[in-house]
Amino acid sequence: xxxxxxxxxxxxxxxxxxxxxxxxxxxxxxxxxxxxxxxxxxxxxxxxxxxxxxxxxxxxxxxxxxxxxxxxxxxxxxxxxxxxxxxxxxxxxxxxxxxxxxxxxxxxxxxxxxxxxxxxxxxxxxxxxxxxxxxxxxxxxxxxxxxxxxxxxxxxxxxxxxxxxxxxxxxxxxxxxxxxxxxxxxxxxxxxxxxxxxxxxxxxxxxxxxxxxxxxxxxxxxxxxxxxxxxxxxxxxxxxxxxxxxxxxxxxxxxxxxxxxxxxxxxxxxxxxxxxxxxxxxxxxxxxxxxxxxxxxxxxxxxxxxxxxxxxxxxxxxxxxxxxxxxxxxxxxxxxxxxxxxxxxxxxxxxxxxxxxxxxxxxxxxxxxxxxxxxxxxxxxxxxxxxxxxxxxxxxxxxxxxxxxxxxxxxxxxxxxxxxxxxxxxxxxxxxxxxxxxxxxxxxxxxxxxxxxxxxxxxxxxxxxxxxxxxxxxxxxxxxxxxxxxxxxxxxxxxxxxxxxxxxxxxxxxxxxxxxxxxxxxxxxxxxxxxxxxxxxxxxxxxxxxxxxxxxxxxxxxxxxxxxxxxxxxxxxxxxxxxxxxxxxxxxxxxxxxxxxxxxxxxxxxxxxxxxxxxxxxxxxxxxxxxxxxxxxxxxxxxxxxxxxxxxxxxxxxxxxxxxxxxxxxxxxxxxxxxxxxxxxxxxxxxxxxxxxxxxxxxxxxxxxxxxxxxxxxxxx
Length: 717
Prior knowledge:
Layout: H1 14-36, H2 49-65, H3 74-88, H4 97-103, H5 110-115, H6 120-142, E1 155-157, H7 169-189, H8 194-213, H9 217-232, E2 237-239, H10 241-252, E3 256-257, E4 260-265, E5 268-274, H11 279-283, E6 291-297, E7 304-305, H12 311-318, E8 325-331, E9 342-347, E10 349-350, H13 353-356, E11 359-364, E12 371-376, H14 384-388, H15 397-410, E13 415-419, H16 428-436, E14 443-449, E15 454-458, E16 470-474, H17 481-491, E17 496-499, E18 507-513, E19 527-537, E20 552-553, H18 589-604, H19 607-623, E21 627-629, H20 632-656, H21 674-693, H22 704-710
Parallel strand pairs: 12-13, 13-16, 16-17, 17-20
Antiparallel strand pairs: 1-21, 2-19, 3-10, 4-5, 5-6, 6-7, 6-8, 8-9, 11-12, 14-15, 14-19, 18-19
Helix pairs in contact: 3-9, 6-8, 7-8, 16-17, 18-21, 19-20
């Protein structure tokens, strides 16, 4: 137990004192939680009866209701074993090759063990893993005082996910010698002195051991069962009672905090995505794939090194009362694997719905003098509470877009862009409603369940709000509901799709409380999220795996192909069903071909666009590194070169856009956000593509309803 006293809070105004009390209480809460989590004795690492009951229910649900049918056999057994070992030791830094060889006795037996609710092998493997972690941490701490020579030209492979398992203890010692040396070098480059780096790293390594020794039977069961579920399909997962509780908390507090979804990658906490409207989003300082390496409470609180921490402990540290200050030390994605750190200060707050809401702007095309309206849509949202109580003015995507379109029409726009970049989805009903604003009637998406039954979701509103030329702008992060909307617009040929192939998630999940299957359950058994259905477009194809392929693909799509659903192990493949009956609005293959030709010609001479591609390629190149030099002079030179290259590119982009360059102090600091500039480049080009699509006749309002009614409903689809 850690005790703090109120004497630590200085005298100040009542409002300041209230805020400091909140910070104080939260710090006390975090300190006590961390101190009170007990270490688990090795004798307690055994499966409980509740785990056996949960196993029986989980295997039954998956075998009976899961969309993907895969028998629990020897083939699946070998996948489960490999995935379990990767879950425990993803970077292959603890187990020896001899351990892996020993575990092969389970390779073709885990299927039968699961059928018998026998979890002993999973716990046996974990005990060995725990011992190996203990050995490695002892070794790491023992060599911390070594006099490392940073003039020796050697390298450290920090990403060992595809490497062989170490064959001997001496080989593993060498891997860890380089790891510790690299950790020391990073802190020296961050201007830490000898005493600081030894203390920091000793605490970091001890935390790895503590985290491992705090894992109880529920944690082990969850890891093992998820090795089973994700061997079938990546979106099927088991939540232990603790994780289920955290899920409930996250739902209740989803509108309060910093607004970032976190995940883990080796020993790092990584930002998976930024929630629109939250403090992280509004700061323009945090981005997807940034790594959080330290967290501090208040403006002056000690920065706690969180490398090696459990994700739920990191979440506990970052959560806090609205209005309190949080300092985060990050390793930006665009700085390379071991680049300069960056300190960010955020104020915890509720995620503002108005910041998540659709927003409009206008692009003025110089050549044609046309105005292109833009509606940026970060997510598909709806205020279910207001809707349920009968409020006719409840906030929703479709309602807000209706109002924005009316204002854009008053501004005499000639075309409309719906910007779905970074939109990860949201309400299915709003995806249907939004699509219905642009077509008169017809099906929008088909849903197929595990029995093969197909349901069709139709346009809920026969009215058309906007009937003019339109484009939908997407990127690799446009997913789920975004893909339903973009796919329907493309199938109806209602507008042109521009950008990158989308994420490719076309599946439906349901969360089942396992306690429902147990009468008079005296213990909690957790929950199972399972894939129960798949979405299909009205044309019959699925968005799953492939995503929505734009009519005009921007060259940014070529920078990284290993992304989205197709990059996930065991993702459902692309599939198709019978097309639904629908009437295409228009067909413009010649216009698209002409617009694509002009687009390719234009960007060749667009300096800003080419510089943006260079910048993204640089980020991709640095993020794909797996090995790094341990030569201090080379590391310093690499850092300086990367920083200068990024600064030069950033300033050239600004100059090409008519903006003044940033000086050394402004560039790459907390106030500079070059990503907003590159986004403007893409949006501007999308506006010019749509402008190219607009023939003189398009300047007149087009009656989509008349077009649909004029088509023979028996025409081939």
